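Risk register update: the risk of archive-format incompatibility is retired. Evidence:
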Amino acid sequence: MIRVRLTAQLKDLAKGAREVELDSAVDLGTMVQKLDRSFPGLGGRIVDDQGRLREHVNVFVNSENSRELGREKTKLRDGDVVHILPAVSGG
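Archived output:
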């Protein structure tokens, strides 16, 4: 089981859920595909049309930044916790 934690910005696309559990996923790219199948439109906020993580989205796996682990190819294991954090800006 993989737990995916979403920010308030993304929870509306996940039917209000702040945390989603997935039975499995080989890597972050597969995880995003599974999320998008369950919650259409959510994947497009995380990856671009090429399936690459968007530059303004930070994804952490067990507190490690996926940019340092392999981005969308970051391997996942049972028990992993993934945090998806879109950049927030404003003035």
